[in-house]
Amino acid sequence: MARRLQEKTSMPPTDRSDGVPPSAQQTRRSIAFLNAAHGIDHYVLGIYPTVVIGLEAVYQRPYSELIVLSTAMFVAFGLFSLPAGWLADRISRRAMMAAFFIGCGVSLIGCAVAPTLTMLAVALFLLGMFAAIYHPVGMAMLIQVSNARGRTLAFNGVCGNLGVSLASGVTAVLAASAFGWRAAFVVPALVCLAVGIAYLALVDDDRHETAKRARVADIVLPRNAAIVFFGLYTIISFCGGLTFNTIVVALPKIVDERLVGDALGGAGLAAVGGLSSLVFLGGALAQLAVGRIAERVAPHLLFVGVVGLLLVGAIWSVRAEGMTLIAALAVVMAALYGQVTVGDMVIARYTADAWRGRVYAVRYFLSFASAGVAVPLIAFFHARGGFDLVLIGLAAVSGLFFAAVAGLVAVVMVATPRVVSAVDAAPAE
User: Fold this and answer.
1) Looking at residue 341, what DSSP letter applies?
2) What is the mean pLDDT of residues 318-345?
3) Which one, of 239, 244, 217, lies nearest residue 345 by Cα?
4) Per-residue pLDDT tens digits for 131-187
5) Among 95, 103, 324, 415, which residue has the fewest nearby CB atoms (within 10 Å)?
6) Under the phi-then-psi rule, with left for phi > 0, alpha for psi from -120 to 50, and beta for the rest, what region is 216?
7) CA distance linking residue 201 with residue 214, whole number of Å
8) Please, which pLDDT band fits residue 40 given cuts at 50, 70 and 90?
């Protein structure tokens, strides 16, 4: 019975609810496009924050005034994830991903040809709206076509991180070219349009599957347990996003301030950038490792372990100095990247495929919305106690994050007898 229970509780979602798997070639194509989409999604959001530096000279406006134009883009990025997930579940996930590619391409062209700053702000808003499609829709598709395979989800996460890493450097090169800052929008626009056309040509239509998607999760929790489970996940999503955005925004300055007096004799800008990149790279590598471990360990148990590691790293970083601080921050970043992959797997296990787009939409909406809270909190705490207070706040949020995940694991463990009963009642094979 123990073996059958393990098979029951570790069963990944089926590729298609009608039981007919897609061809291996079609699966590989879908995953490749989704990986590219994740990189593109984070890349396009990073274009304007780099381009704006050159716009100061073009428009003779201060940075503080120009950077505000991107606010609408980031608001739309969080807000429109909700309708994107709903539409994907009701209409077609493939159609929504095609809208992502084409919509981002057209919006980027709009940014490039915008004659005024007002029109540029409008184009950026549209870019945020179309960029919002990827996370709720793309993750639901990736879970479906990959059977929630840990290493596949982890590699997809690394592709997103690669988009973040390339955005500033590539944008700077394009903006410095003979074509000027508008080229920084035109070139990725052409890439988005080309990939979108290829996607429509090479990936099968899925409209016939929409009504056939499974409406029962792989592991069904009792009603009250499911309510508590998803209630806790709202806390998890917000705390995870707040922790992640806080460390991403504050990391370079933390390294700069807290490394003063180290053997390096104070960290210059190049050293700060290099050490920060090293921390981010460690997080990306950890994400791949967590993806492999998740294929051998129950996702909910791995989830609490990874977030526990986050809490340890956050507490450690409060008093760490010098290179010990780098080690502590590397632990924090590794856990933050790792929890994204395993958290998505937990949702997949307890959510029916037919509802998955909407559930991911809520998850990512809460995660992205926390970005609007992170920056003011950093400013508030830093003004009153420097990064000592910021890191104490980070540790406190990490503690709430861990408590919510521990509660989620308790809910799952308490609900296990129901799964056991169902397995015992099943006829022998």
Assistant:
1) H
2) 86
3) 217
4) 999 988 888 888 878 776 777 888 888 888 788 778 877 888 888 888 888 999 999
5) 324
6) beta
7) 27
8) very high
Helices (H), 320-370: 322-350, 353-369
Q: Is the pLDDT of residue 416 over 70?
A: no
Paired tokens of 65: 């005034």
All structural domains of the chain, each given as residue ranges with its CATH number in brackets, are 18-212 (1.20.1250.20), 223-425 (1.20.1250.20)
Residue with tokens 């090293």: 278
Secondary structure (DSSP) of 104-164: HHHHHHHHHH-SSHHHHHHHHHHHHHHHTTIIIIIHHHHHHHHTT-HHHHHHHHHHHHHHH
pTM over 0.85: no
Residue 353 buriedness (CB in 10 A; 0-12 / 13-18 / 19+)? buried
Residue type, 57: A
Of 143, 154, 148, 153, give the one whose Cα is nearest residue 289.
154
- State how far the Cα of 423 lies from the Cα of 182, in Å rounded to an integer: 61
Tell the residue number behind the tokens 């000027």, with chain if given. 180
